[in-house]
Amino acid sequence: MPLAARVSGIANSLHRRFRQREREEEQEPAVASLPLQPLLDPDVERLVEVFRQRVRERWSSPVHRAFLENDLNHVRRYALSLSWIPQGEGLILDPASGAGHFCDVLREERGYTLEMPRYFNLEKEAAPYPDATFDGVLLMEVLEHFTADPMFALAELSRVLKPGGFLLLTTPNLASWVALHNLINHASPYLYGVFIRQGDTDRHNREYTVDEVGKLVTAAGFGVERLAGIPAYPSHDHLPAIPGVDPRDRGDTTFCLCRKEGPVVDRYPDWLYTSW
User: GO biological process: any one (predicted)?
Assistant: First the structure.
């Protein structure tokens, strides 16, 4: 199939998916709002508007629009992610960058130089860089897509980080309020666990709890600096707390900022890998 036709087909599929979600949200019963925990601070609110404007600047064609509409759903997550990145300078690796909005604003707001490499398989191929090349690495909304060996990817990203360099990892929270509400209503807790007929890896293969993310990065030789489950998507803000359930880290997205401390501690954690 010609590339233009495939892009158009993907765009149409995305557009149908967004319209379906809007119809579902219109039919959901009204429930008491749950205050965001933690509340967005003024700088995050400012960054939300920065990202929203950056996305709309690229709103140029029907094909782009279908993708950008999805990006508008992610601007709070972009803003929260950027707020977790320490101010500094140096070189950051973003091995799975998307449309480029985040990278553009990161350069302007934090002053880093970004490296966005040509595609390589994070789970199977060595990163094409020498040891201790980067001051930071971004792995945002990627962990949940891995299908074979997530520790390989984390070990490689650690290898190319300088000692003390940071990793910012974000991923859906499998123990969030939205996941628990889905379970109560006999639905899958996965944020996006559907199969895709084209056979690509956009579906979520394995989602993680906040505590599991902490264990994973610790096994890879990182020290956790900040770790929390935070509400990143406004479409989930209406969900109430569930009586009797510990409210800790129930936001829909796990944010983890960690630092390289040493070599991999446990290459195959037994809570994640089988022995055969």
Answer: methylation
